[in-house]
Design brief:
The chain has 11 helices and no strands.
Length: about 230
């Protein structure tokens, strides 16, 4: 529902500039290969920012989302994995593309600003005052849902390592850190998150490599069984 409402708001803005959509995509692709963009990519800045934003957007490669999917009641882990593939598609390909189109179509990108300020200005350019309320509410829901999910991930991890007795102290620490993150400067908070994400990705990527053959076998068996079921029907 949260993503759906945000996407509907973005679609409304896009409809207002529907004739300019092809030009907006052309601008995005052409600017991606300009001299400054290529130079940025050559020194790794573009790649670094892309990985950071992609990680923040959908957590791919961190091993966090599987904690939630592991709690699903299913006899088919491969099917649950296919469901998990929808998350990066919705979070990044749909929501982020919509946001990018809104910013480009409204010309807000040329007025300066970054992040929430830039998105707010883009929505405001269509309906005065609309962006401030709409984006603020969207950010509130996105942030709240993120806090709930990461609290659950950490809780499962702390219970596995230290036992059930450590859950309540962890919850208290988590709530305290939410407050610290809200009042601290944004730069150090983001840098800390980057470091934490990087530390999570290292053991997870190693595990993915070690288990890749098992995943492949599960994948093949599932789709073979699925094909046989379809053939029998």
């Amino acid at each position: 529902t949260m993503c759906g409402i945000y996407v509907l708001g973005a679609i409304y803005v896009i409809i207002q500039h529907i004739t300019e959509v092809p030009a907006a995509f052309a601008l995005i692709f052409s600017d991606a290969f300009t001299g400054s963009a290529v130079a940025g990519g050559a020194v790794g800045e573009v790649i670094r920012q892309g990985v950071r934003r992609g990680t923040f957007s959908n957590e791919s490669g961190l091993g966090s989302a599987p904690i939630a999917h592991a709690a699903a009641r299913t006899n088919e882990p491969t099917r649950e994995g296919m469901v998990a593939l929808l998350e990066p598609f919705i979070d990044t390909l749909v929501v982020c593309t919509m946001t990018g189109l809104v910013i480009v179509l409204t010309g807000a990108y040329s007025g300066g600003g970054t992040g929430v300020e830039l998105t707010t200005a883009a929505f405001d350019s269509v309906v005065a005052g609309f962006g401030s309320y709409f984006v603020s509410i969207a950010v509130l829901f996105f942030a709240f849902s993120t806090m709930i999910s990461w609290s659950y991930y950490g809780e499962q991890g702390i219970e596995y390592v230290l036992g059930e007795r450590a859950v309540m102290p962890y919850r208290i620490l988590f709530v305290a850190m939410v407050f610290v993150g809200a009042v601290w400067q944004l730069g150090p908070v983001v840098d800390f998150s980057d470091i934490a994400f990087g530390l999570m990705a290292v053991p997870n990527v190693i595990s993915l490599l070690l288990l890749s053959r098992v995943v492949r076998e599960e994948h093949d068996v599932y789709f073979q069984r699925l094909a046989l079921t379809d053939a029998s029907q």
